[in-house]
Amino acid sequence: SPSDPDLVERARKAKEKLGDKVFVLGHHYQRDEVIQFADVTGDSFKLARDAAARPEAEYIVFCGVHFMAESADILTSDDQKVVLPDLAAGCSMADMATAEQVAECWDVLTEAGIAEQVVPVSYMNSSADIKAFTGKHGGTICTSSNAKRALDWAFEQGEKVLFLPDQHLGRNTAVRDMGMSLDDCVLYNPHKPNGGLTADELRAAKMILWRGHCSVHGRFSLDSVNDVRERIPGVNVLVHPECKHEVVAAADYVGSTEYIIKALEAAPAGSKWAIGTELNLVRRLANRFAPEGKEIVFLDKTVCFCSTMNRIDLPHLVWTLESLAEGNLVNRIEVDKETEAFAKLALERMLALP
Ligand code: 13P
Ligand code: SF4
User: Fold this and answer.
1) Most CB atoms within 10 A, among 168, 192, 223, 272?
2) pTM to 2 decimals?
């Protein structure tokens, strides 16, 4: 939808007044009306690195979700302030693993006598508490663009991986990229005693997958893939690894949001693509590449925005920028020192992956 010209002008003015003091990051799933004001756009891995590379900016305005703003705070210096334009922009997947549940899981692994062999690998899409747990227990963070490298590293450190919170990214990476079988993976359900697993099942597993998922990518099904292949002969199906295993197995290409963009940039004119990821990004790519004769459609028939990403809209961005320009620090995201120290350890292990 076209953005309100009055709000566009106010955002532009406030940003101009702030100058180099502010740096605006925009995740690929953000609305067009917000993305137009981003100094840099990217997937969660690129944005984490970009935030850390801007020491001169006093304010980092993170147009994305809460866990991304926390990661930016962890990776930036203490006097830089990370701001999330709407504090209600969370992530349902990140909320599926709480610190208490993960501590309980570690007790279960200890009881089964395997905790010493287990290396935690946590997806970026997790709270700072989970990242701190990961750092404390010798593990690393990963994103959808480096999950294989993170798992390669983890299996050099230990015999088993506890992968949290996204079961699909964990399973897809293990089976597609690491040559493991579905039987090497078990699913730990935090709502059941002992995760719903016996000690023998835990001992036999190589990958212990946390039972979390993304509600947006979880909507794509094998039917969506079959339907689109029928509707558009010759279509290339390209999906994000947060999709279910059966969807990923039926797709032609799989990758993070940055991978998806690069694949479409490299695609020949006349090619047809069905994309299984968030709708703001797919629509933007469809518009961008239509003049080059690339046909890009959304993988599913029903719309599927990430509702929490969408909470960051132009009115929230205007309010944030105007407040900062007037010297009012609003919506700061600040991780406490102890959590930050351990979470940083895990994030730095990720940034150091080969
Ligand atoms: P990436 O940005 O790593 O592709 O992750 C997608 C996502 O779901 C972010 O919330
Ligand atoms: Fe979380 Fe999924 Fe939204 Fe990403 S797309 S922020 S994983 S709910």
Assistant:
1) 168
2) 0.95
